[in-house]
Amino acid sequence: MRASWLRQALAILFILIGVGAATTGAQGRDFVPVTDAMLQDPGPADWLNWRRTLDGWGYSPLDQITTDNVHRLQLVWAWQLGPGANQATPLVYDGVMYIANPQNIIQAVDAVTGDRVWQYNREFETEEDEVVSRRSRSIAIYGDKIYLNTSDAHIVALDVGTGAVAWDHTVADKALGYRYTSGPIVVNGNIVAGMSGCERFKEDVCFISAHDAETGEQVWRTSTIARPGDPGGDSWGDLPLRYRAGADSWIPGSYDPATGLTYWSTSQAKPWGRLTRGTDGDALYSNSVLALDPETGELEWYYQFVPGETHDLDDVFESVLIDRAGRRSLFKMGKMGKMGILWEIDRTTGEFVAAHDLGYQTVIDVNPQTGQVTYRPGMIPQAGVELEFCPDFLGIRNWYASAYHPDTQALYIPIHPTCVSGMFTEIEKELHAPYYTNSGWLSRGTTAHPDSPDHRGHLVAMDINTGEILWRHAMATRPRSAALTTGGGLVVGADTDRHLFFHDAATGEVLYQTRLPGSVQGFPITYAVDGRQYVAVPVGGNRSNAVYVFALPDEQ
Q1: Using an 8 Å Cβ cutoff, are 517 and 530 in contact?
Q2: pLDDT bucket at 24, cuts 50 / 70 / 90
Q3: DSSP characters for 315-377?
Q4: Phi and psi at residue 208, to the nearest 5°
Q5: Per-residue DSSP letters for 71-113?
Q6: CA-CA 20 to 30 A from 312: which of 221, 273, 362, 529?
Q7: In which band, very low, low, confident or very high, does the pLDDT at 395 lie, cut at 50, 70 and 90?
Q8: How far apart are the first and last CA of the chain?
């Protein structure tokens, strides 16, 4: 069912005047601190982690909004956000929504009315260079504090009731390019965060670190690049440490209390091409998932998806933890591995289980029994030789996460099949140079994938047991929104042509759709206050940044 022009006009009006539904909201309630037990098993009404639960599902058991009544959804309030790259995930706890704006601004708003409770504005010492975009994809809540990873490589703890700064800890030197673009997770009182901004050549490497929730002091720090002389150090050949770059960890990790491990993923080595970085080795621990002891940071195991990856097609994104066939599995979509491959890894041992290829990539072959990867003929870049491959560097999928539904046992994955042509070149290695002066890639442009010439995006439902595509929804434009699944049998998706879709999780049928003033460019969530379920949708596009909140009509 398509929303009327009146509803679209009301959406714009709500943003302009900043009003919401006339209900009491949650203000005045006694605050109960958020515990580790709550984070590991959130109440149905709340959205406490990046993907709601630490297993990365992106699923809520709320079932007031169902396949039978979703067509009755209406806009109840909207809140305008600041300008910039909006890829936010709201958190909701006890009737209050906490949301990161671009520019590292945090706001708390009443989750029923949209009225502002408080606002934190990050004050930067100097202007960031052009590589840094001040996005905050996620934040964390624990105890009585909100935790923000900043674009100048700090972790800041804010009082949950007032937004006042409880502590501000410098984690790394922003002058070396270090930055955060996503938030931390909280594991047993430790704030665990992956560092980004590791594309520059320097006398240091990227890392994952844990910090005391009360003080911000570092508890441990684990490098994501194997150093010379350390285990795996020879996988970079004879490159000195200063020329070992990449392996950023810029999407939040997952945590499994049963294994006692936290799982973090790393990006590709940089520069992208083997010939450009000067080694054809595996380049550990880039393009890998790392299983870490959350108390010590010790590496228990790792799995590298494509050793020595050479096309900027990495697997840095969400790790989805699902128990299947008597096994504790970790499903790695990454950017669908950017290549459109669903990996299944035993999350206890790190052993390969399965790989399911969507069939859009033209770069590698994966042995279905062993997981061993081989490049297809002509796919390893040579200096000055034109190369065409699929997908392009944005991948079959990018930062916008998939979602799992336990009833259908399917992952719902936003994808955009594309191809690219160009060539890699050798570079002159220069310490501290901005990244895009030394990527070594000369692009000839991107094109639509030949198997998807008329559509730039799809939402696909993939059976985790077989890799079978259960259904797909074609869109005229690419998606830039994560998927969301609910106990009401729904999947929420969107495209950049401003459409918001509510699908039947079993069949893919679009049960309700509307068109918003801006495109959905973040992580939709659902929550409940006083028994009423809401769906919150971050919308982006720089000046059109906002959060739109929908619910069924109030029957009272």
Answers
A1: no
A2: very low
A3: --S-EEEEEETTEEEEEE-TTIIIIIEEEEEETTT--EEEEEE-S---SEEE-TTT--EEEPT
A4: -115, 140
A5: GG-EEEEEEE--SS------EEETTEEEEEEGGGEEEEEETTT
A6: 221
A7: confident
A8: 25
Residue matched to tokens 């990227």: 206
Euclidean distance between CA atoms 491 and 443, whole angstroms: 36
Three-state DSSP class for residue 53: coil
Compute the distance between CA of residue 98 and CA of residue 118 in angstroms, rounded to an integer. Answer: 10
Residue that is written with structure tokens 């399965």 in the block: 354
The token pair at 60 is: 């809520």
The Cα–Cα gap between 159 and 415 comes to 38
Asked whether the predicted pLDDT for residue 12 surpasses 80, the reply is: no
CA nearest 115: which of 25, 13, 12, 48? 25
Which residues, other chains included, contact 82 with Cβ-Cβ below 8 Å and sequence gap of 6+? Answer: 101, 102, 103, 105, 545
Q: Identify the helix (H) or strand (E) that includes residue 16.
A: helix 5-17
Radius of gyration of the chain (CA): 22
Q: What pLDDT digit, counting tens, does each position of 435-489 carry? A: 555 677 888 888 888 887 777 789 999 999 999 999 999 988 888 899 999 999 9
Q: Which two tokens stand for residue 236?
A: 């970079």
Q: What's the farthest any 2 CA atoms get from each other in the chain?
A: 71
The arrangement of strands across the sheet holding 105-110 comes to: 91-93, 96-101, 105-110, 116-121
Residue 5 has pLDDT above 70, yes or no: no
Residue 231 contacts by C-beta under 8 Å, 6 or more apart in sequence?
none
- Cα separation, 280 vs 275, in Å, equals 7
Q: Which among 219, 237, 217 has a CA at the least distance from the CA of 228?
A: 237
Q: Are 82 and 100 in contact (CB under 8 A)?
A: no
Residue 101: CA count within 13 A, CB half-sphere: 21
d(CA 88, CA 102): 8
Strand-pairing partners, residue 25, are none
What does each C-alpha distance from 277 to 236, 337, 426, 439 come to in angstroms? 9, 21, 8, 9
The answer to whether 381 and 275 are in contact (CB under 8 A) is yes
CA distances from 94 to 112, 142, 427 (A): 11, 13, 53
User: pLDDT at residue 540 above 70?
Assistant: yes
CB atoms under 10 Å from CB of 443, counted, come to 12
Contacts of 298 (CB under 8 A, 6+ apart): 222, 292
Residue environment code for 117-139, b if the CB has 16+ CB neighbours within 10 A, otherwise e: bbebebeeeeeeeeebebbbbbb
Residue 181 CA to residue 133 CA, distance in Å, equals 8
SS3 label, residue 321? strand
The predicted model scores a pTM of 0.92
Q: What is the pLDDT of residue 10?
A: 42
Span 235-279, pLDDT tens digits: 999 999 999 999 999 899 999 999 999 999 999 898 888 888 888
**Residue 12: in which H helix or E strand, if any?**
helix 5-17
Q: pLDDT grade, residue 338 (50/70/90)? A: low
